[in-house]
Amino acid sequence: MIRNIFPAFATLFASTLSISASPLISFNDSVDVYFTGSSNLSWQSNLFSDSSDEIEDILLTLSPGFESVFGRGASNANLNFTTRYDILRYDKSDEWNTQTFHAKLAGNYNASKYFISGLASFDERQSSLRDAQVKGNLSESDESKLEIEGEYLFSPKFSFGSGIKFSKREYTGSQAINYADRDSTILPFDLFYELTPKVDLSVGYQYTYTDIADVASNTNNTAYNSDAHFINIGARGDLLPKLSGNIKLGLRFIDSDFTTNNRDNSSLGLDGSLNWQSTPKLNNSITISRDFGSTSNGTRIEESAFNINSSLALSQQLRTGASLGYTLRDYLDQSREDGFLSLGLNASYQVSDYCTVSSAYSFSKNDSDLAGGANDFDNNKVDINISLRY
Q1: Distance between CA 243 and CA 285 in Å, rounded?
Q2: Burial class of 224 by CB neighbour count within 10 A (0 to 12, 13 to 18, 19+)
Q3: pLDDT at 308
Q4: Which long-range CB contacts under 8 A does 169-174 form with residues at least 24 apart?
Q5: For the segment 189-198, what is each residue's pLDDT rounded down to a tens digit?
Q6: How far is CA 174 from CA 93, 126, 137, 218, in A?
Q7: Contact indicator for 177, 213 with CB cutoff of 8 Å
Q8: I want to staple 226 with a disulfide (CB 3.0 to 4.6 A). Which of 171, 204, 256, 297 is the partner?
Q9: How far apart are CA 104 and CA 225, in angstroms?
Q10: At CA 107, angle to CA 101 and CA 113, rounded to 5?
Q11: What is the helix (H) or strand (E) element at residue 198, kind and residue range?
C-alpha cells in the first residue's frame, strides 16, 4: 500500500494550486459556503503506545469537508457550521482502516449588556490511549458536546456569567468492552468585578456531575457517579503588560458514589489560559490545570497539566513553532503515578490565501510507576500536511 500513498498525496497537493480563493457559494452578502480539505501523511514509531512491542506505521488521512458562515457583517449574531469526513488508511496495520465523521455548530450573539455563545459538536475518533490496559489496539469512540455560556452586565462594574456544558463519550468498535463510557455535565457560575478598564476580578463556583459506566470485560470494575465542586477566585484581561488571559485558583471537592461506599477527595484547583507576547513576532500560549478526572477504564485520577505553545512569524507566509507539555496523573484508588511528557516542533508556509503546507515533529514519553514498567512507552511522530479552503 505504501506505493499508493505518495501519489495520492502529491495529486492532492497539485490540485490545490489551481483553486480559486473565493467562497464556493455566497448568499445575500451574509452567507458564505467554503470547501475545506486536507491531506495528512503521518509516521509513528509506536502506533499502539506499547513498550514491549513497538510497531511503526504510516497513516494517510484525507479530509474533505465544508464550512458555512452565517451573519457575516449583517448583525450582532454569527453562526458557523463545519463538517468533514476523514478517510484513514494505514500502510501496515490496515485492519484499522476506517472513516470518521466530524461536525460542529458554533455561534454567538453580542448585545450591549449581554453576550451569549453556544457550541454543539459530534466527532468519531480513533486513537491510541496512553492509559489503556489492552495493548496492540486502538480505541474508537463517538464524542458529543453541547455548550451554552453567557454573561450579563448589570452595572458599570459588575457582571454575571453562567452556562451549561455537556459531554458524552461512548466507545465503539471491537474494543468497546474494554473501556468505560462517560457522561459529564458542568454548571459554572461567576461574578466579575471591573478592577481597571483592562482587568476583571472574579469569584466563582462550578458544579460537575459525572457518570461512569461499567467496563464489560472487567468484572472488578464498578459503575459510579461523582459530584465535584470548584470554589475559586480569579482574574482576566491584560494581567501584565505582555500577558493576557484568565486564571482561576481555588479548592476542588469530589464525592464519588460507588456501590459499596462513597469516596471523598479534595485538592487545590487551578484553571488558566494565558497568552504571552514576548516580542511582536513571538507569541506564546500557556494552559495550566489541576482537576479530578477518570481514565479510559473509569479509574479515578487527579490530573495536573502544563502546556506551552510558541509561534514565531519569520515572514508573512512562514511560521515556525515549538511546544512543551507535561501531565501528572495521580491515581486516587491505587498507589500509582504517571508522568506524560510531550515535545514538538512545527513549521507552516501559506502558499496562497487558500492553501497552507505544514510539517511537524513530536516526541512523547509516558513514565509510570506501575509494576514492571507495563505502562512505560515513548513515541516519535512526523506529520506532513496540506490544507485548503476556498
Answers
A1: 10
A2: buried
A3: 98
A4: 169/141, 169/142, 169/143, 170/141, 170/142, 170/143, 171/139, 171/140, 171/141, 171/296, 172/124, 172/140, 172/141, 172/142, 173/139, 173/140, 174/137
A5: 999 999 999 9
A6: 15, 12, 9, 15
A7: no
A8: 256
A9: 28
A10: 160
A11: none
Calpha distance 382→41 (Å, rounded): 8
Task: Tell which residue, 130, 122, 203, 228, has the closest CA to residue 167.
Answer: 122
Q: What is the pLDDT of residues 62-83, one digit of tens each?
A: 999 999 998 766 678 889 999 9
Q: What local confidence, expressed as pLDDT, does residue 262 receive?
A: 76
Residue 17 confidence (pLDDT)? 37
Q: How far apart are the first and last CA of the chain?
A: 30
**Range name among 64-68, 133-137, 224-228, 273-277 with the lowest pLDDT average:** 133-137
Q: Which residue has the cell 505518495?
A: 6
Which amino acid does the sequence have at 248? K
- The answer to whether the beta carbons of residues 305 and 286 sit under 8 Å apart is no
Query: What grid cell was written down for 341?
Result: 511528557
Residue pair 321/309 in contact by the 8 Å Cβ criterion: yes
| Distances, alpha carbon 48 to alpha carbons 52, 234, 385, in Å | 10, 40, 22
Q: Name the nearest CA neighbour of 117 among 68, 164, 70, 83.
A: 164
Between CA 33 and CA 16 the distance in angstroms is 18
Give the residue carrying C-alpha cell 515535545. Answer: 343
Instruction: Report helix, strand or coil for 372.
Output: helix
Percentage of the chain beyond pLDDT 90 is: 75
Nearest Cα to Cα of residue 185 among 228, 236, 249, 242: 228
